[in-house]
Amino acid sequence: MIEVKDLCFDYPGKRALDHVSFTITPNTITALVGPNGAGKTTLLRCLAALDRPLHGSIKIDGWETDRFSRQIHEVCSYLSDFYGLYDELTVTQNLTFFAWSHHCEDNIDKQVKETAKRLDIWEYRDVAAGKLSRGLRQRLAIAQTLIHRPKILLLDEPSAGLDPEARFHLSQMLIQLQKEGMTIIVSSHILSELEDYSSHMIVLDEGLLVKQCGLTDHQSTNNKITLKVEFSEDVALHMPVIQSLSDVNVKSYEKQTVILELQGNQQSQQQLLKTLIEKQLPIISVQEQKQRMQDVYLDITKQKAKAKAKE
User: Fold this and answer.
1) Residue 268's domain is classified under what CATH number?
2) Contacts 24+ apart (CB under 8 A), 259-262
């Protein structure tokens, strides 16, 4: 469990976090998103007990970060966007050193081997870190965060420098770590990538917590369902009928497919399908589409902009 209450953090002349409060339940993957300068890295560093906030409190696994930093470092692991490696040490030596630093005493060689294989860097085990490519250095940095098997993983831009295949393997690994019981917070600007594995989202802007939600919760909260409807003929022929339907918004259409946004719930979806059939429209299929993280993020920022305009 991660509990953040009324957190404030100041840099000279700037408030980076402004009375931020939230709770993260165990065994979830939370995407931390927001524009540059929103306070994401500062929040992660505070959670990792590396920076002390001006005001407020953080509890991780029952430990207060400002009083029990050593305990926090045992249960929590943090990957900075500017990760540090010992360039003259080999992959194996780097991982072994980090295992020792976290007081791993049993089967260190086995843990090093398993972790290196998990990140696909075992074949480079005798290569000095300074001679690795940027992508392999990033994998080694991620491996270091996992070596002591923490309960909570904090990742700041973990996919930076990774090729598409490595990014896919990273997302699959994070999903597997969640299944194994780990709680993960990931900061990234690549929203399409985050939505592959994230279960929740926190949006920061100008140091303020704009929104915290489950990615499925947000759609149900808005009472909107997005549907993809396929026709056996050109959908343009039936647009007058479709546009006349109440509580239905046409988001887009092309050839034999139309994307509809329906106001309501699953009963409304059932009623819409019944209405389309009654009007004898040549429907092939109706499929509900989950909102993309980018859509959720843009929706949240639009709501914030509207609220700010009213002030």
Assistant:
1) 3.30.70.250
2) 259/226, 259/227, 259/228, 259/229, 259/289, 260/226, 260/227, 260/229, 261/224, 261/225, 261/226, 261/227, 262/224, 262/225, 262/226, 262/227
Residues 26 and 149 occupy one common structural domain: yes
How far is 225 from 260, CA to CA, in rounded Å? 8
- Structural domain boundaries enclosing 204: 2-215
Question: Going residue by residue through the chain (311 aa), what tens digit of pLDDT does each one get?
Answer: 899 999 999 999 999 999 999 999 999 999 999 988 999 999 999 999 999 999 999 999 999 999 999 999 999 999 997 777 999 999 999 999 999 988 887 789 999 999 999 999 999 999 999 999 988 999 999 999 999 999 999 999 998 878 888 888 889 999 999 999 999 999 988 888 888 889 899 999 999 999 898 876 555 455 677 888 999 999 899 999 888 888 888 888 889 999 888 877 777 888 888 888 888 899 998 887 666 677 777 777 777 766 666 66
Same domain, 170 and 93: yes
DSSP code, position 166: H
Q: Which of 194, 215, 236 is the last residue of a domain?
A: 215
Among candidates 293, 232, 283, 233, which has minimal Cα distance to 260?
A: 283
Q: How many domains does the chain fold into? A: 2
11 domain residue, yes or no: yes
Tell me whether residue 298 is in a domain: no
Whether the pTM exceeds 0.70: the reply is yes
